[in-house]
């Protein structure tokens, strides 16, 4: 199947101040913000979305907490939400897939509406022509897969999910660590192999469901890869450009 | 003269929360944050600098205000400082050269120490071997040049400044507008011409003194160009890694 070219830009009509609960990791936050800007149809600074980014990378590791070997990141994420509340934001996005394990707890801790990254991905899959029953491949951290963050929520939209083999998943985790260490180029080959493995399982699309991955594996001009970071940025802009 | 290769990375020892008064423009803010991360020596998320970014692009145009044809951006910048104060930051950087016209007024409006971009550039020039008496070329907005933001402050460090011809300056402003409109590649040729003109005036270094310019004119591997955005990011990291 063939997907349309990169996402179309969005012109903001309601400049609601966006909050970003970030720092997980910091480079993924920078990547999210750059994509938010690039997806905005604007001729001047003033036509861009006002955004407050709390990039607080001291938040404990999310995968370690889910696997059971680390501190909970929830208290630090709640503190970051307080920062965003005081900053007058009206919506919050979290450019970290694994952090969505705590989505309901975070939503319960604030009056601010949180935008869910899997809902953003589901909207992008639908816009690209995928239909209920299609199989979607996941490239994600051990934590995101173990917690079934995508599997459960995409099931609501009718999609089935496939994940790499145990060996393939170990190479994906190594690739993510390389990106976090500032060496994205060292991660690309392993990720291409993992994508090929998922394609063999019949996946119509493969989601880069960890915000570090698009830094190592460009999705432009790909008719298979879907960048969850880009889908989240698009959902934030659409939220600021409601249909009349 | 030959400059050393790109800036060396800095390992943070004092994770002071940094505030960024941004959105002028938003892409320059994203570029600053990406450079801050890339210049950090870190093996994990947690070793990066905690940062809160108020990217509020509705701040009125800085150059228009200096030239006398636009609203003052000062009230909106003061409001952004309030956001950063409430976010618990300990230092503030402003990745917009022209906004430094209001530096003293902003410093008078907050107890938070502000880091001055021209001081960061002066430190980088000195680290690259420039000495008092050397001539430094400026590529900047009309507002930054007219307000003599660089000329006055670099004079304190003993440097003389050169600026493009009136014709060259018009092409620089057109290039900056192209970047703000999301078309950095359309700006590169005009900027290369402006750099050549400044070299003919005897400049030992040419400063990209507008945060939009590095997006159109890469400074890597150049022994002449100095990216003020990168210099500011480095100063923020050095501030979080004080000598023992």
Describe the model.
- 2 copies of one chain form a homodimer.
- Chain A has 244 residues and is an alpha/beta fold.
- The first copy, chain A, folds into 2 domains: 18-117 and 231-239, Rossmann fold (3-Layer(aba) Sandwich); 121-228, 3-Layer(aba) Sandwich (Rossmann fold), CATH 3.40.50.1860.
- Chain A has helices at residues 26-38, 62-67, 74-86, 103-108, 117-127, 142-146, 149-156, 166-180, 188-200, 228-239; strands at 18-22, 51-55, 91-93, 114-115, 135-139, 160-162, 205-208, 225-227.
- In chain A, helix 1 (26-38) crosses helix 10 (228-239), helix 5 (117-127) packs across helix 10 (228-239) and helix 8 packs antiparallel against helix 9 (188-200).
- The radius of gyration of chain A is 17 Å and the shape is globular.
- Chain A starts with 17 loop residues before the first strand and ends in a 5-residue tail after the last helix.
- In chain A, 52% of the residues are buried.
- The interface between A and B is large, with 40 and 40 residues.
- Chains A, B: Keywords: Isomerase.
- Chains A, B: Pfam families: Asp_Glu_race.
- Chains A, B: This is Aspartate racemase.
């Amino acid at each position: 199947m063939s997907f349309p070219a990169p996402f179309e830009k969005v012109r903001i009509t309601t400049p609601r101040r966006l909050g970003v609960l970030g720092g997980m990791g910091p480079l993924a936050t920078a990547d999210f913000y750059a994509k938010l800007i690039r997806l905005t149809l604007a001729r001047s600074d003033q036509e861009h979305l006002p955004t407050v980014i709390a990039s607080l990378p001291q938040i404990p590791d999310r995968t370690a907490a889910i696997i059971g070997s680390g501190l909970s990141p929830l208290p630090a994420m709640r503190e970051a939400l307080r920062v965003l509340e005081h900053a007058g934001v009206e919506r919050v996005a979290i450019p970290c897939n694994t952090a969505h394990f705590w989505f309901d707890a975070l939503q319960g801790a604030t009056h601010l509406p949180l935008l869910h990254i899997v809902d953003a991905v589901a909207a992008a899959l639908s816009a690209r022509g995928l239909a209920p029953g299609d199989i979607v491949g996941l490239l994600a951290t051990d934590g995101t897969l173990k917690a079934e963050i995508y599997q459960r929520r995409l099931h609501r939209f009718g999609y089935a999910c496939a994940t790499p083999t145990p060996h393939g998943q170990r190479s994906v985790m190594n690739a993510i660590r390389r990106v976090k260490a500032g060496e994205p180029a060292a991660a690309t080959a392993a990720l291409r192999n993992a994508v090929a493995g998922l394609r063999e399982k019949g996946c119509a699309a493969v989601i880069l469901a960890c915000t570090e991955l698009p830094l190592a594996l460009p999705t432009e001009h790909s008719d298979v890869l879907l960048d969850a970071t880009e889908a989240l940025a698009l959902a934030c802009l659409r939220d600021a450009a409601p249909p009349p």
